[in-house]
């Protein structure tokens, strides 16, 4: 394995980490539109919190997919063809979720406005759930032939571990969204988001215990990399407890950062378990390795130069955009007063 191959494996992990940190609270806000907000005024406020950001946050996913295509074409081909239906459903969920914000604002009747609000909430939940299900099913090992083609059955993708993974990621995103609401709103909405967080964190911790048990039973993470796997899992629990403490003590920033780091910990866990593989086969001889899946050294070299030239500009823009819209949004009752 060359240094460029290792760097690009790390960069793809960083891109997915950025996606789940940023788009994670977008998914949570989307779910909150119908599952948390009580009336139209509150739903307007909830959507307004991510109005300037949600479409920009999705760019991290597009960039991660593009980077995978350019740097590890065999990984891209195997993953995207083997998980074609799952990725298609994710795309449908993202489309419905994306257009729902625009269509809802222009609907003249309550019926269609409610329809697009439900499209936002269901689309956000389905996208988060399917991402979690896809990644957790992938790390169990899938039937791959010597050419890198996946021949999976229904239970390859849908099983107890993948369902628990999907639920866990959805719940993490929902709580991350509530923590973002606490940062961006004041008054009754913020207080209710804090109250919900206090109730949901014990449920999340119980789910994490179930996830660890199934991870131990269905993957090779603990046999191949016991120390790093346990270390990441301990970090995940610590971040969850820190976020819970933030909810109990009204430290909004602590809760938000810690819940985001919890999502990043899941990505780190997956990439740590994959390394030095990019796809895990049920027959270990057919697993796809980083060293065999990458583009040519020249391609990786050129991409590295371009990335480290453009990336600082992109990061500066993201930081600037969040700084411009950092102020809290008043709850509807406060506005009325």
Please summarize what this structure is:
The protein has helices at 3-35, 40-50, 54-57, 59-71, 73-82, 84-106, 110-138, 154-157, 160-184, 188-218, 221-224, 226-248, 252-274, 290-293, 297-324, 332-336, and strands spanning 277-279, 288-289. It has 337 residues and is mainly alpha-helical.
List keywords for this structure.
337 residues; mainly alpha; two-stranded antiparallel ribbon; 2 strands; iron
Description:
The chain has 337 residues and is mainly alpha-helical. The chain has one domain. It is 80% helix and 1% strand. It is built from 16 helices and two strands. It has helices at 3-35, 40-50, 54-57, 59-71, 73-82, 84-106, 110-138, 154-157, 160-184, 188-218, 221-224, 226-248, 252-274, 290-293, 297-324, 332-336; strands at 277-279, 288-289. Strands 1-2 form a two-stranded antiparallel sheet. Helix 9 runs antiparallel to helix 10 (188-218) and helix 10 packs antiparallel against helix 12. The longest helix is centred in the N-terminal third of the chain and has 33 residues, at 3-35.
């Amino acid at each position: 394995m060359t240094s460029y191959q290792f760097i690009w494996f790390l960069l793809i992990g960083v891109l997915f980490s950025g996606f789940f940190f940023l788009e994670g609270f977008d998914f949570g806000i989307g779910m909150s539109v119908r599952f948390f907000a009580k009336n139209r005024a509150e739903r307007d406020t909830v959507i307004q919190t991510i109005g300037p950001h949600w479409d920009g946050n999705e760019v991290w996913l597009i960039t991660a997919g593009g980077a995978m295509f350019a740097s590890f074409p065999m990984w891209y081909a195997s993953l995207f063809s083997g998980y074609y239906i799952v990725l298609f459903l994710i795309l449908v969920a993202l489309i419905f979720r994306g257009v729902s914000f625009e269509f809802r604002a222009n609907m003249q009747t309550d019926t269609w406005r409610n329809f697009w609000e439900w499209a936002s909430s269901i689309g956000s939940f389905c996208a988060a759930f399917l991402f979690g299900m896809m990644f957790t099913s992938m790390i169990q090992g899938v039937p791959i032939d010597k050419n890198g083609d996946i021949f999976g059955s229904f239970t390859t993708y849908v099983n107890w571990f993948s369902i628990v993974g999907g639920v866990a990621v959805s719940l993490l995103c929902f709580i991350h969204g509530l923590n973002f609401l606490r940062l961006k709103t004041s008054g009754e909405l913020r207080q209710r988001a804090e109250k919900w967080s206090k109730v949901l964190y014990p449920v999340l911790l119980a789910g994490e215990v179930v996830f660890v048990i199934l991870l131990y039973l269905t993957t090779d993470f603990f046999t191949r990399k016991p120390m790093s796997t346990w270390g990441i899992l301990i970090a995940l629990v610590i971040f969850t407890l820190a976020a819970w403490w933030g909810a109990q003590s009204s430290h909004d920033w602590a809760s938000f950062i810690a819940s985001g780091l919890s999502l990043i910990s899941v990505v780190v866990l997956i990439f740590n378990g994959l390394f030095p593989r990019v796809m895990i086969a049920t027959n270990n001889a057919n697993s796809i390795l980083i060293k065999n899946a990458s583009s040519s050294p020249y391609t990786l070299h050129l991409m590295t130069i371009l990335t480290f030239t453009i990336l600082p500009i992109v990061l500066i823009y993201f930081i600037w955009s969040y700084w411009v819209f950092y102020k809290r949004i008043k709850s509807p009752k406060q506005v009325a007063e």
